[in-house]
Predict the structure.
Amino acid sequence: MHGITVLDLSRDIAGGFCGRLLAVMGADVERREPLGGHPLRGAEPLLADGRSALHDYLAAPEHLADTPAPAVDDTAALVDAAAGFDVVVLSADGDTDTIGRAAAALRAAHPGLVVVVSSPFGLTGPWAGYRGGPLVDWASGGHMSLNGEPDREPIPAGGPWNSTLVGAVAAMGAQAALARARRSGRGDLVDVAAMHTLACMHQWSIVLYAHQGVVKGRYGNRHGEAHHPLALFPTADGWVCIASVTRPQWEGLCIAMDHPELLADDSLYAPAARFDRADELDALINPWTSSLPGAEVVRILQESFCPAAAVRSMDELLASQHLAQRGYWQPLATGPDPERERIPGPPFRVTSHPVEPDRADDAARLASATPLASRGPAELALAGVRVIEFSVAWAGPLAGRTLAELGADVIKIEHPTSRGLSVSPGGAADEAWEWGTLPGPQHRNGTYPNGLPGERWWNQLGYFNKVNRSKRSLCLDVKAPGGREILDELVRRADVVLDNYSPRGVRSLGIDHESLRRLNPRIVSVDLSGFGATGPDAEQVSWGPILDATSGLAHASGYADSGPYKQGLAFADAVGGVHGACAVLAALHERDRTGGSVHVDVSQLETLIGMAGELALVTSASGTPPARHGARSTVFAPQGVYPADGEDRWIAVSVTDDAEWAALVGVIGGSLDRPAWAAGVQARRADHDAIDEAIAGWTSARDPFVAMATMQAAGVRASVVMDNRDLVESEQLSHRGFLVTLEHDDCPPLPFPGFPLRFAEAATDVRATPALGAHNREILAELGYDDAALSVLESTGTVAARPPT
C-alpha cells in the first residue's frame, strides 16, 4: 500500500482498526481528532495510568496530526481537509444522515476519493439511525447467540473483537475500491455495516436455517451440532482444546486415551454422532485430560495425529518462543515505556522479489499483456486478475470467494476427493426428517438442502457451497499423469496463487514461492497457514477452535465466575479469510509498484492475536491478563444481556454515559430512578446487580424487538441478541440485500449470505458454487487441450467430475 494516503476521521473501533490495518500494510495514514479528544481515549481496557489500551493500540501506526478534525456537519472544512488524500475513513453512530451527507459532499468535491464509512447498522434501512458499540455488534451480528451455556445468558467474547473484524472488512473494501480507482480514476463509497458484515462471517449458521429451518443454539465449550470432540477440556494445570474432526484424528484420540473399545463402535466415526453422545464421551475424556498437565496432553495427542493445543493466556503468548522467532511482538513506540509495553506486529509479511536479469523479457511481456476479459460488469474491482486457489476448510475458501466476488477469475483446484468419497454418506435414503429439526448424525455434517443428500450429494454440501461460490472448479490431481504440466501452465497465466495448506503441504505440492516464480516472474503467492511459514510451531495442524485456544482469546472469554470459553463459531477462520483477501490485494499493489514477484506469509494465529492487540498491551504493561467479566464493562455501567419475552430470547444493553443513563431511566421508569444511581458511573457499577434486576424486570415482559426499538428511539444502545433465524428474516438486512438466492443443477434455489459490504458504484459478482469439475473442459481448452487430450486425462484420473468410488 506504499504511496497511498489515508485521512482517518473515524470515531469507532471499526474505523480505527481499518486505519491501523491500512497503515501496517504500508499506507501513510494521518489521524485527526475532534477538539474534545478521540472518543476511544476512554475505551476499555484501561492501563494503570488511565490510558486506553485499545485507543493506543489502534492509533500506534498512524500519524496524529496537530490539526483537529473538522466537524462532520461542516462540509466546507471537511472537503478542504480531504484534499490530496486517496482515502477518507468516517464512522457513524446514530447520525447516519449527517455522515451520509458528508460522504456525498466529499465524493462530489473529490471524484477520485474512496470514502469508507463504518456504522452499527449501515447508512440505509429502517435501523440505520440506531446506535451501537462493541456489545451491540456482538448481539446484532448473531455471534453472541452462539457463545456461552445453553442454560445461562449468552455472552460476548472477551473483547471488542467483532468490531475489529468489521474494521478488517472495511480495510479490504478500501483496498478493492482503490484497485478500481487506479484503473477508472473514479473513487467510491464503501458502506460497512457491522450487523451486515458480521452476519456474513458465520460459519454455517445462516445455511443451517436456510437449508433446514434449524435455529442454531449454543453449547458451552462444545462446537455445536456437527462435531465432537472439538471442544475445551480441563487439565491438571489449565485447559486444552482437542479437535478430533477426521476419522484418523478420532482413531488417534481413542488410542492416546487407551480406549480402543471406542473404535469398535462404527457409529462413532460420524462426527455428529459423537456430538449426540458428547456426555458419554466426555465422561471418558475429562478424567484423562484432568490427570495430566496440558503440555503432556498436547504432546501425546500430537504424536497420535490428533490436533490439540493448550488454552494459552496472553502473558504466555508474550513469552512464546514461536512468536519471538517470528519477530511478532513490537514495542508501543508512542507509550511511556516502549521496552515493556508490547503490541502485535503486522498481520502478515510481504516480501518482494526483483525480477532476475535473465527473466526481464518474460516479466515485461507479462506486465504488458492484455488483461483477461472481465467475466462480469466492467465495474468489478479485480476484473482481469486470475487467482489459482488451493484451499480446504473455511479461511482459504473465504479469501478466494471474496476475491472472486470482487471480479477476479478464481480457479479452485480441487482434488477428486476434496468433497468426500463417492459413497453413500450413510443412513437410510428414506430417513424421516422434519423441517426445523436436525437431520440424523450420518447426514448432519453436509448441511444438505432439506436435510438429506441426493444422488450427487458432493455438489449439495451446504457448508461447502457457502464458501466456494463465484469460482470456477478444476478437479485436478496434480500428482497424476499430466497434472503437473496443467498446473504449471496455469501458473504461467496467473496473477496469484493462494493456499491455506501447512508449509509441508505447500512444499509437497510444489507451490512454494521459489517454484512458482521460476514459472512466472510476476507471480503473487499467498500462504495462509495456521502458524506461519516459519518458526518451531509452523507445521502444527490447526482448526479454528485450536487457534482460538492458542491465541489468548479463549482464555480471556467467559463469565465472571467461569473458566475460559471458546466462541460458538470458528472466529479464527473468518479473521484469517478476511486478512487473506487483504493480503492478496496488498500484494497485487506491491507487484504493480515493484514489477517483480511477491510472497506473503500469513499466520492465521497472528491475524487472530491482532484482533486483540489491546489485550496484549494491557497484559504486557501489567504482567497479568485481565479478568473475565462476561458482558459487563470495566469502565461504564450498566451493561449486560437481559432476558426478553420468549424462549431463549435476550437483549443486549450498553449505557456509556450519564445522558444515556437518563434516557434508559426515561424508558424503564421508577425502578431505575434512584438519586444514588443518577450520581454517576461509579455508583452504578457498585450497585450493578440491583440495576440488572430492575432492567431484567422490564425487558422480560417485552418482545425483544419491541424493547430494542423503544430503547433505540430514546437513544439507548441496545440490540436483540440475534440468532440465525433472526438474521435470515431481518427487515434491516433484507433492505440491504443481505441474502442472495443461488441455484445450480444439483440444488434448488436457496438463500445464502451475500457480500459483506456495499459499494456505491463498484459491482460485485455473486454466483452459485460450481459442481465438482464443472469447468474442466472450459479451463483446459483455454490452455490448448483438445477433446482427445481431455479424454486421456479423464481416463487416467488426472481430471474428474465426481469423486472416486
